[in-house]
Amino acid sequence: TSAEPRVSLLFFQDQKEQLKIASFRHLVVSGKPLTSALISRLLERHAGDSGLSDTLSARLRETTPTLFSHDDATASKAQELLSVAVGLKSQFDQMNMLRDSLKHFSQVTHQINLSSVCSQYHKVAYYEGIVELCLCAALHRDPQGMALHYYKNGQPQDDLVGRAAFLERGEVYAPVTVALEELSSRETATPLSSSVPLNPGPPTERAEPDKPDPRKEFAEMLALVLRSKDELLHVTVYSWLIAAHMAETLVEIQSPFIEDYLNNMASVQQDNRHVLDLLWRYYEKTKAYSGAARILDELAHKQDPELTLDQRVEYMSRGVMCAKSSRLTTTSDTIGELLHELEEKMEVARIQLQISEALKLQPQTQPVKTAIRKLDGQLADISTLYGEYADTFELSECKLAIVHCAGHYDPTLIESLWREIIDGEVKNIPVGVHSPSQLHGLRTKLVELGQQYSRSERYFPLAYLVQLLEQTGARLEWDSGFVHQTLLEVGVALSTLFGIYDRLFKAKDSFWMTVGKPLHVLNAIHSLVLVYIERPSLVANFERPSFNATVKDSLSHYLVELQTMTSDIRGLNQTISDLRSLEPQIQRIS
């Protein structure tokens, strides 16, 4: 035994000890493991001598058929071919011998150590052999496809036979995922070459030996799996990719089985949001946009404590984008209805986010914290948002957004909401402020909301807002141009503003006399007309002649009205002078 390799000595040490104490009778009657070990050892000693090993196999089959069957001979031959192939230098010869070994192993998958053989194939990068051998073993162990039937039917608990077949197939496919795991770990742990020279002086060029690229090998093996028609092998590898955090690789796969796999996972693991994430991304990747949109809608409304409101709104936004993309590729009425439905949900979801953000700015009392947590928990309908949140916590901007979204028109309610919004902005502005920086917050808010609602007169009651803002400005002594300058920034036409101011003056509201500012509206009109004189382009060319005539007529009317006022009104003469100076300037505008 001195010539035996050390590994063999260790491996067969136990059998040798048993052989020393075994009687001949025991060896014949119940010593099959020992005799099998002896036969294996005998064949190993002559591995590499094809002629002699074939002769030995034939002789053993002839003389000891119960100990060395035809399948034993086939397995032995396969192992011999594999052992010899490992040592070959020629890649061509090695590949031919590996393929030959695979043909032999494939005939006896029921009695070989599958993991051991695949491990040896892996060492010589024979990935085709790993995949093909596992496929043969799976077919041999489950020839009737009970495992696939069990999987396709939702893995029912009472199908014990199908479950056993499914689990057994999973064990058979294990060498494939083991090889992928090893290649993946090599890919992410490629060692860096040292930059420190071993000897002083200029660096010397060294020829680096060719090393296999783990990325290329991983892609090669994955491609072999994807070419197979064994759906359960696909399922096993897909599940491994998810567990290995390679979801990006999964959604890139083009396979007839991937969609069914993801749908099956979604139905079996209904609480697993990440599976739905993969499904919509797969649909988007394959341009199945309507499917992606529906999954995104489901995700946005999913009851999941880990989902934040921001994520839900993001899902809805992506869903709308997918529905729009789907509409570009099809004219189906169903897609149009889906888009409309998602856009409505998106608008409500944005309002919910707006409410949440508004609550976060309030003192964090327990009711406020509870409300924020509930808003994060799931998307609510429009009525719930109004009644339980916006109204309860007096969020005027949010209430205005809700009535606008719902198309609910109540002029009194809308005006009261605007008043609350404006009062909330001006409550901290002291009387007599003329500094633009101190009025910046109010101006920004008015421009933001104005641009949002100005397209709909119902929800942007312009005449009411001009009156309310000018009255507030008169009380707080704002600059006479602040209101109309802000509304011009919103996008309100100058001619429209002039008409509103004209009617406001002619209404002769007693408010102006009450606060001691009877000339306030006329001073605002003077400021507005000056803006027109400086920037005539604010009125379209074709409108200017009629607008100029309207302004001149109105100025004449204002001057007549001023003549009837008592001379003790402060600033009266200045206002008259200001208005008179406007007419010749308007005359020069063409």
Spell out the key features of this protein.
disordered N terminus, single chain, transport, Nucleoporin_Nup155, Nuclear pore complex protein Nup155, 0% strand, mainly alpha, nucleus, 590 residues
Tally the helices: 31
Main pleated-sheet profile: none
Mean pLDDT: 84
- Principal-axes geometry comes out as elongated
Could you tell me the strand content as a percent range? under 5%
Give the beta-strand count. 0
Helical/strand content category:
mainly alpha
Distance between the ends: 118 Å
The amount of helix comes to over 70%
Radius of gyration, whole Å:
43 Å
> Runs with pLDDT <50, length 5+?
1-11, 192-201, 203-209
GO molecular function: structural constituent of nuclear pore
Keywords: Nucleus, Transport
Region (Disordered): 185-214
Biased composition (Polar residues): 186-197
Task: Give an overview in words.
The chain is mainly alpha-helical and 590 residues long. Helix content is 71%, strand content 0%. It has helices spanning 6-21, 24-30, 32-45, 50-63, 70-86, 91-107, 114-123, 127-141, 146-152, 160-188, 214-227, 231-243, 247-252, 258-268, 273-285, 289-300, 309-329, 333-360, 366-377, 382-390, 396-406, 411-426, 440-453, 462-476, 482-490, 494-506, 511-514, 520-534, 544-563, 572-580, 582-587. The protein is elongated and about 140 Å long. The N and C termini lie far apart (118 Å).
